[in-house]
Amino acid sequence: MNTLNALSLNNTRRAENLIIVFNRVPKVGSQTFMELLRRLAERNNFEFHRDSVQRIETIRLKPSHQQELAETISALPVPSAYTKHVCFTNFTKFNLPRPIYVNLVRDPVERIISWFYYIRAPWYYVERKQAFPDLPLPDSRWLRKDFQECVLKGDPECTYTQGATHEGIGDHRRQTLFFCGHEDECTPFNSESALERAKYAVETQYSVVGILEDMDTTLTVFEKYIPQFFAGASEIYHNEIQKFNKINKNSFKSPVSEEVKNLLRQNFSREIEFYNFCKQRLHTQFLAANLMDLN
């Protein structure tokens, strides 16, 4: 990333299978991006696939389940796009062709605030109850929690202990986990090892990692680096999706002060470093693509 070389930044040309894998991080605009992929599938003649809604989301898989996932995706007709909340899975480890990996990231502190209120939104539980009628409803006191108060009171839900681990989709704190992979060393929160593994995966395996806060640059880079799938992405996003559809927009979020955000940033230092790394790479790709021919 020290040179504006579009070819060296273009992992798409290293793909061995015309299948997009969007192993989506929660609360980074992934629902909107999935809707964009659906519409692009019609425009650009590829198939769109997503995993089924699950009662318990498992994102870190055993090797046998990693292989099963990789085989399922590899068997899709080409060209296709597939999306699932899951850690980066190395297809070549199972002697399967390398797909085109993409993802999005978001400011880590804004993302955890968004998640806190997202899982308390009324429509979230309506959707969950419709899918799984026997799910119990949460305690009303839990639903009424305020994020800022939760942080300042040292509530365990809003305490982000360095090196702590949690399993499942509930461990919403770490974007790096989705890039680091399934190994145990990827699980400790805000760890140096998980950070470096995640950076390496982005540099060597991902065609594009977009930034939620900069969708114009993000969509331009997608169009430049993966044109077969993303031609027309900016037009569809601005004219059809952003203009008319606020997917998963939560009007129940309470404001959080900069003082509290700064407290959180101290614990999210490596997650923030990873976010800034992805942002730098995206902007470098943007500049390189405008200076050189990618073909």
TrEMBL record:
**Per its UniProt entry, which superkingdom is the organism in?**
Eukaryota
InterPro entries given in the database record: Heparan_SO4_2-O-STrfase (IPR007734), P-loop_NTPase (IPR027417), Sulfotransferase (IPR005331)
Tell me what organism the protein belongs to: Clunio marinus
User: In which broad location class does this protein mainly occur, judging by the first location in its UniProt entry?
Assistant: Golgi
GO molecular-function annotation terms? sulfotransferase activity
Cellular component, GO annotation: Golgi membrane
Per the UniProt record, the lineage of the source organism begins with: Eukaryota, Metazoa, Ecdysozoa, Arthropoda, Hexapoda
UniProt keyword Glycoprotein, yes or no = yes
Q: What is this protein called?
A: CLUMA_CG008223, isoform A
- Does the UniProt entry include the keyword Oxidoreductase? no
Report the subcellular localization.
Golgi apparatus membrane
Q: Which UniProt keywords apply?
A: Glycoprotein, Golgi apparatus, Membrane, Signal-anchor, Transferase, Transmembrane, Transmembrane helix
Which SUPFAM superfamilies does its entry note? P-loop containing nucleoside triphosphate hydrolases
- Protein family according to the UniProt entry: Belongs to the sulfotransferase 3 family.
What membrane topology does the annotation report for this chain? Single-pass type II membrane protein
